[in-house]
Amino acid sequence: MKGEAAGSGPEKVPAYSWYALGVLVLIYVLNFIDRQILSILANDIKADLGVEDDYLGFLYGTAFAVFYALFGIPLGKLADSWKRVRLMSLGLALWSTMTALSGFAKNATTLTVARIGVGVGEATASPSAYSLISDWFPARLRATALAIYSSGLYIGGGISLLIGGLIVENWNAAYPGGGPLGLVGWQAAFLAVGIPGLVLALWVLTLREPVRGAIDGLPTPEDPEPFRGFVRELFQVIPPFTVFGAAARGTGALVVNLCGAAFFAAVAWALWLWTGVFEQWLFLGVGYYAVFSWTMGLRARDLPTYRLTWGSPAFLCVILGYGTVAFMAYAASYWGAPYAERALGADKTELGWFLGAPGAVAGFLGVILGGRMADYLLERRPEGRVWVILFGLVMPLPAMWVAYTTSDVAVFYVGAFLAQLLSASALGAAAASSQALVLPRMRGLATATFFLATTLIGLGLGPFMAGYVSATNGDDLSLGVLSTFVAAPFGFILLVAALKLVPQAAATVVERARDAGEEV
Fold it and tell me: Which of 458, 513, 386 is closest to 64 using CA atoms?
């Protein structure tokens, strides 16, 4: 077997696979409703809690992203060793509960803690889903299937504006002084989107667990001790336990770990002094140090997985290249509604219908068409999927520029629609590319690593940068969002390199794993 040859024939996909994929899409829709509803609520939260745009960017991005990314690592390991269906159900119940509890927040600290809980719960979803999809669909259809799953991101993100806008305006109209329990509109919105997830969690439990790796001709037996690896990864990635994990590997590993901690602490401290924002750099400093610690530990205890992920230039170019797409896309997606409300005079209901609903359609079409094109090009060129990622990086830029420089709200809606459509095209291709570069047993961790780039780079930095630039330039959200274009040249260089590196890496997955000590 080389690359994606196994499982790439014309065999028919069972109807159950499509049904199960539909359930996963519903989960992802709710995932992003709970995550993205913060956008339409941002101006109300700002007024009620007395916070600034940089905090709102931190709340949406970094507070969520760091814990989503860090817990995604041990939970990705658990997805590689335990029942993925059960893991998703438990995670869905957790993040839905924390979303509902956000509705009772009375200050920024409480809302931040609830947001952290949402991040931890949602970290179960995609590692489990990506692994399940890779076992339900043959390689020739994985980019398409992953793109369909990923469409939930855009559907959920889009309709969250519509749902949130309707709830806030109707609640505040009915209870102008606050409703039951003193809740105002934005708090009621959190409750309304959080509670249904508890019902969906029960439905998820009815899904059947596929045999891991069977569709690729590499059936993998169940791990008799699935939680041992999870606990080990947890201690390798969550400070301060990371120090003890490093010490257990020897004096040299401990010294490297402490040097890494000092380096990230120094960088975080310098950025705090430069920007005056403490929470952002504290969270990111801890996050980057934790990932560094985990990576060093992974190299020591699972060299084949390390070599095929962190040790693979092709894998890194793909995930970091897509991270720059996410950097700009998350900023534009989150700040679109607050910008139109403040700068262009749109009301929340209008934003739901003309920004949220079309955005859902645009994202859905973009991710599906991009995934299908990625599979089409892969049949003709080994680097075909990477071309689609590159397209998703470059083509949205003119549309974003028009959207955030016009004074006409209708032009803004058109520009935002096109930017969403074009940037969404990259996701299925990037996800499938990352999965193609590892063995079946590594897919959960590969997905978690892929999402480190989209979260700690894209989500953790993009929305905050836009909010910080806005807050320090007279609440100029136009300048804030457009400042994220700084990421585009870096992404372009990484993806051009990926065009050269991915074909050879995908064709030699098994050989490189064997060279690192894997028994295949």
Answer: 458
